[in-house]
Amino acid sequence: MQVFDPTTAGASTPANKPMDWYSYPLTFISMTINVASSQNIQIDAASNFYLTAITFRAYLAAGTTALTANTSIIPGVTLLLTDGGSSRQLMQNPVDLSSIGGNGAWPHRLLYPRLFKANSVILTQIVPYDASLSTGWDALRINFEGFRIYN
After folding, report:
1. Is 134 left (phi over 0), alpha (psi -120 to 50) or beta?
2. 25, 84, 145, 147: least CB-packed within 10 angstroms?
3. Phi and psi (nearest 5°) for 52?
């Protein structure tokens, strides 16, 4: 498998620009089964963002359950991402979060980084379909990992 190297010739990133690792986290609470919840991520105006991985963690907001590797919750949630800069949906239909995201130990790495231009918006929409919402879990954190390249 070839790994994306932004410093190589022909890469789609600007040469000789400062860059560093970065993430945009979201937290969803007070969700209702089969009802969409939306949040936006405002990309920093000073840098482009290249999305390379998506991770998630579902938990009880009250924190009554200690999460371990053996008790990690896989929430029944669909995710739809839209690039607000181009108004393009990044999938044909909402997909199961566990199909496009992973936990911190097993993140879902994207084969190719997805560029979100400086000052654009990532529109996120989730729809919980899991009947254990609010009994097995009631909060969800999604982390969009990648790197920034400064203008």
Report:
1. left
2. 25
3. -120, -20
Give me the phi and psi of 60, to 5 degrees please: -80, 125
Domain boundaries, the chain: 19-150
Here the tokens at position 135 are 């009994």
CA angle 117–119–121, rounded 5-degree value: 80
Q: Please give the backbone phi and psi of residue 61, each rounded to the nearest 5 degrees, phi first.
A: -60, -35
| CATH architecture of the domain with range 19-150 | Sandwich (2.60)
Per-residue pLDDT band at 135 (split at 50, 70, 90): confident
Q: Kindly state the tokens that stand for 21.
A: 């690792």
Dihedrals phi, psi of 108, to nearest 5 degrees: -85, 110
Q: Which two tokens stand for residue 25?
A: 């986290």
